[in-house]
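Q: I'm a student working through a structural biology exercise. My instructor gave each of us a protein and asked us to get a predicted structure, then write a short paragraph describing it. Mine is Response regulator receiver domain-containing protein. I'm not confident about reading structure output yet, so if you can add a plain explanation after the C-alpha coordinates, that would really help. Here is the sequence I was given:
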Amino acid sequence: MKKIDIACIIDDDPIFVFGTKKIMQLANFCETFMVFRNGKEAYDKLKPIISSGEKLPDLILLDLNMPVWDGWQFLDEFIKIPNDRPITIFIITSSVDPADVIKAKSYDAVSNYIVKPITIAELKKMME
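A: Happy to help. First, here is the predicted structure for Response regulator receiver domain-containing protein. I'll explain a few features afterward.
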Protein backbone atom coordinates (compact mmCIF):
# COMPACT_ATOMS: atom_id res chain seq x y z
CA MET A 1 0.00 0.00 0.00
CA LYS A 2 1.19 3.47 -0.89
CA LYS A 3 1.24 5.94 1.99
CA ILE A 4 -0.48 9.26 1.30
CA ASP A 5 1.47 12.46 1.86
CA ILE A 6 -1.32 14.87 2.83
CA ALA A 7 -4.89 13.94 3.81
CA CYS A 8 -7.50 16.67 4.11
CA ILE A 9 -10.49 16.29 6.44
CA ILE A 10 -13.40 18.71 5.98
CA ASP A 11 -15.80 18.10 8.86
CA ASP A 12 -17.29 20.18 11.66
CA ASP A 13 -17.45 17.31 14.19
CA PRO A 14 -14.32 17.44 16.38
CA ILE A 15 -14.92 13.90 17.67
CA PHE A 16 -15.05 12.50 14.12
CA VAL A 17 -11.93 14.46 13.16
CA PHE A 18 -10.05 13.24 16.25
CA GLY A 19 -11.11 9.61 15.68
CA THR A 20 -10.33 9.69 11.98
CA LYS A 21 -6.87 11.14 12.58
CA LYS A 22 -6.20 8.40 15.17
CA ILE A 23 -7.34 5.66 12.77
CA MET A 24 -5.19 7.16 10.00
CA GLN A 25 -2.17 7.17 12.31
CA LEU A 26 -2.78 3.54 13.34
CA ALA A 27 -3.10 2.54 9.69
CA ASN A 28 0.06 4.50 8.77
CA PHE A 29 -2.17 6.16 6.18
CA CYS A 30 -0.58 9.57 5.70
CA GLU A 31 2.31 11.83 6.65
CA THR A 32 0.28 14.90 7.61
CA PHE A 33 -3.24 16.34 7.83
CA MET A 34 -5.12 19.44 6.80
CA VAL A 35 -8.33 19.92 8.77
CA PHE A 36 -11.13 22.38 8.03
CA ARG A 37 -14.39 22.89 9.96
CA ASN A 38 -16.59 23.76 6.98
CA GLY A 39 -16.60 23.91 3.20
CA LYS A 40 -16.01 27.66 2.99
CA GLU A 41 -12.93 27.52 5.21
CA ALA A 42 -11.55 24.61 3.16
CA TYR A 43 -12.23 26.39 -0.14
CA ASP A 44 -10.67 29.64 1.08
CA LYS A 45 -7.48 27.81 2.15
CA LEU A 46 -7.20 25.30 -0.72
CA LYS A 47 -7.85 27.69 -3.61
CA PRO A 48 -4.66 29.77 -3.07
CA ILE A 49 -2.63 26.58 -2.55
CA ILE A 50 -3.84 25.25 -5.90
CA SER A 51 -3.30 28.60 -7.64
CA SER A 52 0.26 28.95 -6.33
CA GLY A 53 1.26 25.38 -7.22
CA GLU A 54 2.05 24.45 -3.60
CA LYS A 55 1.75 20.88 -2.32
CA LEU A 56 -1.88 19.77 -2.37
CA PRO A 57 -3.64 17.09 -0.37
CA ASP A 58 -3.71 13.72 -2.14
CA LEU A 59 -7.11 12.98 -0.69
CA ILE A 60 -10.08 14.86 0.76
CA LEU A 61 -12.55 13.32 3.21
CA LEU A 62 -15.62 15.52 2.87
CA ASP A 63 -18.62 15.68 5.19
CA LEU A 64 -21.93 16.85 3.73
CA ASN A 65 -23.69 18.39 6.71
CA MET A 66 -21.70 21.38 7.98
CA PRO A 67 -22.36 25.01 8.85
CA VAL A 68 -21.39 27.98 6.62
CA TRP A 69 -20.88 25.87 3.46
CA ASP A 70 -21.97 22.24 3.39
CA GLY A 71 -20.16 19.57 1.39
CA TRP A 72 -22.24 20.18 -1.74
CA GLN A 73 -21.47 23.92 -1.74
CA PHE A 74 -17.76 23.12 -1.31
CA LEU A 75 -17.81 20.62 -4.19
CA ASP A 76 -19.70 22.97 -6.51
CA GLU A 77 -17.07 25.68 -6.04
CA PHE A 78 -14.00 23.46 -5.68
CA ILE A 79 -14.49 21.71 -9.03
CA LYS A 80 -14.43 25.12 -10.76
CA ILE A 81 -10.82 25.74 -9.68
CA PRO A 82 -8.45 24.88 -12.54
CA ASN A 83 -6.16 22.13 -11.31
CA ASP A 84 -3.82 19.87 -13.28
CA ARG A 85 -3.25 17.52 -10.37
CA PRO A 86 -6.24 15.41 -9.41
CA ILE A 87 -7.31 15.19 -5.78
CA THR A 88 -9.27 12.11 -4.74
CA ILE A 89 -12.46 13.07 -2.88
CA PHE A 90 -14.40 10.70 -0.64
CA ILE A 91 -17.68 11.80 0.86
CA ILE A 92 -17.71 10.63 4.46
CA THR A 93 -21.09 11.41 6.00
CA SER A 94 -23.77 10.25 8.38
CA SER A 95 -26.39 10.73 5.64
CA VAL A 96 -27.97 7.51 4.41
CA ASP A 97 -30.36 9.44 2.14
CA PRO A 98 -30.44 7.70 -1.28
CA ALA A 99 -30.73 11.14 -2.92
CA ASP A 100 -27.33 12.10 -1.47
CA VAL A 101 -25.76 8.88 -2.78
CA ILE A 102 -27.17 9.53 -6.26
CA LYS A 103 -26.07 13.18 -6.17
CA ALA A 104 -22.54 12.15 -5.15
CA LYS A 105 -22.32 9.88 -8.20
CA SER A 106 -23.03 12.89 -10.44
CA TYR A 107 -19.65 14.43 -9.48
CA ASP A 108 -16.68 13.06 -11.42
CA ALA A 109 -14.40 14.31 -8.64
CA VAL A 110 -16.06 12.08 -6.02
CA SER A 111 -14.49 8.62 -5.78
CA ASN A 112 -16.82 7.06 -3.24
CA TYR A 113 -19.58 7.66 -0.70
CA ILE A 114 -18.93 6.22 2.75
CA VAL A 115 -21.29 6.34 5.72
CA LYS A 116 -19.61 7.25 9.03
CA PRO A 117 -17.75 6.01 10.94
CA ILE A 118 -14.70 5.27 8.81
CA THR A 119 -12.76 2.07 9.42
CA ILE A 120 -9.17 0.97 8.92
CA ALA A 121 -10.41 -1.44 6.21
CA GLU A 122 -11.95 1.48 4.27
CA LEU A 123 -8.74 3.50 4.62
CA LYS A 124 -6.76 0.57 3.22
CA LYS A 125 -9.13 0.43 0.22
CA MET A 126 -8.50 4.15 -0.35
CA MET A 127 -4.75 3.57 -0.38
CA GLU A 128 -4.96 0.98 -3.15
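A: Here are two points you could use in your paragraph. The beta strands are 4-10, 30-36, 59-62, 88-93, 110-115. Residues 10 and 36 are 5 Å apart (CA to CA). It's a good idea to check both against the output above yourself.
Q: Great, thank you!
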